[in-house]
Amino acid sequence: MTTQYLIEQASAAQPALAATPSTFTWWKSADGQNWRAYVDGPPDTSGKATEIQLLTALQGASHGVSGNYHYIVETDIATAAEEEFNAWYNTEHLPGLSRVPGTVRAQRYLRLSSSPRYIACYELLSPAVMESPAWLAIRHTAWSARIRPMFMNTVRQLFIRHTP
Description:
164 residues, alpha+beta, 8-stranded antiparallel β-barrel, 40% strand, globular
């Protein structure tokens, strides 16, 4: 299995895109302050590279097209709650959100060093997908209400596909 990396750059300045392989998909945060890309193999870039492990990858209801939006939720969870947290993500939350129209793909990663350790990524056709009744129904289940207060060091951020 190929090692994967998350490349992050906290800067309003554009990364040195010419120095990165054309296979990179760069995402710029909606506030313009952060950049990220997911790559296979050791990256050759000036950004911060963190080794990650793919846990789950699901095709979304709108697979087959490129989404221009990338919503991420990163969080830590107490060791005692990890089993239920992973069961919730694997059986209810990620599959449910992947089935929402406008979701292209849903993935989960484990950051192998540093924090937050868990990363959930949703490639979307539009930010409006996150406001749809179908998306909100999955976010507001009883199991979600029980798990979400266990999140620690949580980061939620919307990114936009960068096309040079």
